[in-house]
Amino acid sequence: MRFAAFDQTATDRATEAARKALEDVSIGTIYEVAHPVVRVHPETGERMLSLGRSVQNFVGLQRYPSQRLFELLQSYLTAPQNTLCWN
Question: How far apart are the first and last CA of the chain?
Fold first, then answer.
């Protein structure tokens, strides 16, 4: 999968000044990187999905099929039975 030039989640709760600073830094060279969608947890050995909002597309798929696959995987990840919350 490919990631955006900067992580959008970092700017969600940032002040306007901090957001502008992050955007200024991200305007330079854009690097495309590929990361595995399935990773193995280092302690349990369990496989896990690793996605983020910065995903642009999956390697080998066009934009529309990538978006549909991302939506499907994201809906699985965010389903209540697949999430863990604690206080």
Answer: 33
* Tokens (6 digits) for 84: 């863990």
User: With a cut of 70, which residues of the chain have pLDDT below it?
Assistant: 1-14, 22-29
Q: Which residue has the tokens 């099929």?
A: 65
What does the block give as tokens for 52? 């983020």
For residue 37, the tally of other CB atoms under 10 A from its CB is 16
Q: Give Cβ neighbours of residue 23 (< 8 Å, ≥ 6 apart).
A: 6, 11
- Kindly state the tokens that stand for 36: 């595995």
Look at residue 84 and give its three-state secondary structure: coil
Buried b (16+ CB within 10 A) or exposed e, 42-61: eeeeeeeeeeeebbebbeee
Cα 61 from Cα 13, distance rounded (Å): 32
